[in-house]
Every structure is written in structure tokens, then in C-alpha cells.
Design goal:
This protein has about 300 residues and is α/β, with parallel strands linked by helices. It has a single domain, classed as Zn-dependent exopeptidases (Aminopeptidase, 3-Layer(aba) Sandwich), CATH 3.40.630. The protein has 9 helices and 10 strands. Strands 1-3-2-4-10-5-8 form a 7-stranded mixed sheet, sandwiched between helices. Helix 3 packs across helix 7 and helix 4 packs across helix 9. It is globular, with a radius of gyration of 19 Å.
């Protein structure tokens, strides 16, 4: 493991290391590619295809500004006297995806068989990060709440349901096409809305089953509605072995996953010239959505939850 790189950051606000927490905020997909490359020259040297393809994909697929929104919410809650945990994964999503099971978390950017030392290190990063996340959520009080914060692009592409080939020229061609699809969205299509991921399916034919905290879901719905924020509640998140296991992690019983639009958090307007790779945060918008998450957590807390 590189001594200059940490796979995650973890802060406790208004809390000692072993103190039970009122709330937690977690961001699994906000890691950036530049510090990872800088700390891991051996990874860059082992790439199976051109680095010029990996870097833009990592920038565009990162959950831009999700760590800033989570931090804003955590600091608001701390100012109100609550004990809060804040964790941000620093691993680039397109290299190690912490929303996957271990066997599917590593993307095939290098030949695992030829570089077992890199595979071992990447698995260690995954294990350390997952252990830290679980410890943080286990530190919540029985009535504590948490939010898994994501951000997404405001548009879809025809390639969204496709998986890249594993290695070779066809993999490079697929990613080159993917970059073009992300760089040139169809601005005539309807923009997506924020998503509250609340139901899951084990089979496409199943009816969606609620897997999150119903009080927190209701509180965030109310918070968005009262501020005129368009959103949808996902009815059919499809859990598979590749994604997060065949059933949702039990921690979600007192939590919720929210996916905010990047276009609602950035300074650049949605329309021609909107470039996913080079967005900049709008501090006012980030603060606004941090406030919404903080308010929802407080509203959803049970009466027994008392500020420290």
C-alpha cells in the first residue's frame, strides 16, 4: 500500500473515537484519478490500454461534488450539537467500485494474472475501506440515521446497459466510444431527476421491496417537495451478485441512498458546452443540498435521539 495514499478519509464531528453517533454521511464514489495515479506509478505502468482513455472516464464517472454535499450536511448537524461521522472513499470509482462486492469491485484495467501484487493491493484497499465503513455504521446509536450520498449525470446514453470487454483492442474501442457518448449528450432529451434509491429486486419480475429507513425516506421526500425539487423514488433497484450482493446490506435499514444530479450542484448550465469531465462546484448549490440532507436526518430521527 502506498504510504502517500489513503483509500478513504474519516472524520468524527462532536464525537470521540468510540462514542455512539447520531448520524453518518458516506460517499463511495467521489475519489479522483489524479492523486491515485500520482501515488501508484506501478498501476499506470501496468495499464492494458492508453492512459488517455482511463483519465477522462474516471473524471466523468466520479460522483462529482457528493463529498462536498455530505461534508456540508455533516457540519450543519455538528453545529446543532449532534455527534456525526463523515466518511469519503478516495478510490476512483472506475478503478475500485465500493458499491460492488469484492469479486466485482476491481475494473480490468490491468492483467490480474500478470500483476498479482497489484491485485493484492487493490483487494486490500477494498477490504480496509469496507471494514471502516461497517465500523462507522456500527457506531451509530440504535436510533441513529445515515445517508449514502451519490451524484449522477443528468442524461442517459445508449451504452448505459453495456459492459466493457475485458482487455484487448475491443476494450479500448469501447471506452473511446463511451467517452464520445458522455462528451456529446443529446440535449433534446428530458433531463433526469434526483433519485432516492429505496426499493430493490432480486429478479426483474419481482415487485420492488423497500430496503431503506421509511422515516428517513418520508423525511427526504418531504424536504424535497417543500422546496420544489423534482425527484423520483426508485422502485426497482436490481441487486445482483455483481452489484452489492443479492440482498441489500442490513445497514440500510436505518439509512437511505440518494443520487443527486451533477447539473444541480455545478456552476456550469445544462446545455451545449456542458462537459462532465470539467465541471466546477457551485458552493451555494452544494450548501443548499447539504442543508436538505441535514434537515431530513433530523426530521427522521426518533424522539429518543437527543443532541449531545
Amino acid at each position: 500500500m502506498s504510504p502517500s495514499f489513503k483509500p478513504f478519509s474519516l472524520r468524527l464531528l462532536n464525537a470521540l473515537p468510540a462514542q455512539p453517533l447520531d448520524f453518518a454521511l458516506y460517499t463511495p464514489h467521489g475519489g479522483q484519478i489524479e492523486p491515485f495515479f500520482e501515488a501508484h506509478p506501478d498501476f499506470a505502468a501496468a495499464l492494458q490500454m492508453d492512459r488517455s482513455l482511463l483519465e477522462p472516464i474516471c473524471r466523468m464517472e466520479a460522483d462529482a461534488f457528493s463529498p462536498q454535499v455530505a461534508q456540508e450536511a455533516a457540519e450543519i448537524l455538528a453545529e446543532q450539537g449532534y455527534a456525526v461521522g463523515l466518511m469519503a472513499i478516495q478510490l476512483p470509482r472506475e478503478i475500485i467500485d465500493m458499491n460492488r462486492t469484492r469479486a466485482y469491485a476491481l475494473k480490468p484495467w490491468f492483467d490480474f494474472a500478470r500483476h498479482p501484487e497489484l491485485l493484492e493491493r487493490h483487494n486490500l484497499y477494498f477490504d480496509l475501506s469496507l471494514e471502516a465503513r461497517n465500523q462507522l455504521l456500527n457506531q451509530l446509536k440504535p436510533e441513529g440515521k445515515w445517508i449514502d450520498v451519490h451524484s449522477m449525470r443528468p442524461f442517459g446514453t445508449p451504452m448505459d446497459s453495456q459492459f466493457p470487454p475485458n482487455g484487448g483492442e475491443s476494450q479500448a474501442q469501447w471506452y473511446a466510444q463511451r467517452i464520445q457518448a458522455l462528451k456529446n449528450p443529446d440535449f433534446s432529451q428530458a433531463i433526469r431527476t434526483h433519485c432516492l434509491v429505496a426499493h430493490y429486486k432480486q429478479d426483474p419480475q419481482d415487485e420492488g421491496e423497500l430496503f431503506v429507513d421509511p422515516a428517513l425516506l418520508k423525511a427526504l421526500e418531504s424536504e424535497f417537495e417543500s422546496h420544489g425539487i423534482p425527484f423520483n423514488v426508485s422502485k426497482s433497484y436490481y441487486f445482483t451478485a455483481q452489484i452489492a450482493g443479492k440482498t441489500p446490506p442490513p445497514h440500510y435499514r436505518n439509512g437511505l441512498c440518494v443520487d443527486l444530479l451533477k447539473s444541480a450542484l455545478c456552476a456550469e448550465p445544462w446545455g451545449p458546452g456542458f462537459d462532465l469531465e470539467f465541471l466546477t462546484p457551485d458552493e451555494g448549490k452544494v450548501a443548499f443540498y447539504g442543508q436538505r440532507l441535514a434537515q431530513a436526518l433530523v426530521k427522521a430521527a426518533k424522539p429518543a435521539l437527543v443532541a449531545a
